[in-house]
Amino acid sequence: MADHKISVDQVRHVARLARLELSPDDEAQLQADLSEMLTYVDKLNELETGSVEPTAQVGEAGTPMRADEVTNCAAAAEMLANAPSRSGDFFKVPKIIE
């Protein structure tokens, strides 16, 4: 049997907190998966990161902002040109609440 970093009791505790019902096979699979994740995290913890500056993100600074400007004009006649039914400058829709 493989060496696990997490016990079945811990898996059951987490499952209870998450309100999950797990079969014994699911518990064993989750135990193996979580142990594998913890092994990977331990491997990452071995890296020397003392010379790496803390960063909030590693990529571009996100979506560039643009000025909030109106780019279209409200033209009721054009907006209502293809309306199946209208009442003045409004769309007319069938009543759905009785």
Explain what this protein looks like in three dimensions.
There is one protein chain. This protein is mainly α. The chain has a domain at 8-45: Histone, subunit A (Orthogonal Bundle), CATH 1.10.20. The protein contains 3 helices and 2 strands. It has helices at 8-17, 24-45, 76-79; strands spanning 86-87, 90-91. The protein has a two-stranded antiparallel ribbon. Strand 1 (86-87) and strand 2 (90-91) form a beta hairpin. The longest helix has 22 residues, at 24-45. The relative contact order is 0.09.
Low-pLDDT segments, ≥5 res: none
Helix content: 25-40%
Intertermini distance: 66 Å
Per DSSP, the total helix count is 3
Side by side, the strands of the main sheet go 1-2
What is the number of E strands?
2
| Net shape | elongated
CATH class descriptor of the domain at 8-45:
Mainly Alpha
Q: Main β-sheet, in a few words?
A: 2 strands, antiparallel
Order of helices and strands: HHHEE
- Mean pLDDT over all positions: 87
The CATH architecture designation of the domain at 8-45 is Orthogonal Bundle
CATH topology of the domain at 8-45: Histone, subunit A
Strand content: under 5%
Based on helices, strands and strand pairing, what is the structural class?
Answer: mainly alpha
Q: From the alpha carbons, calculate the radius of gyration and give it in angstroms.
A: 29 Å
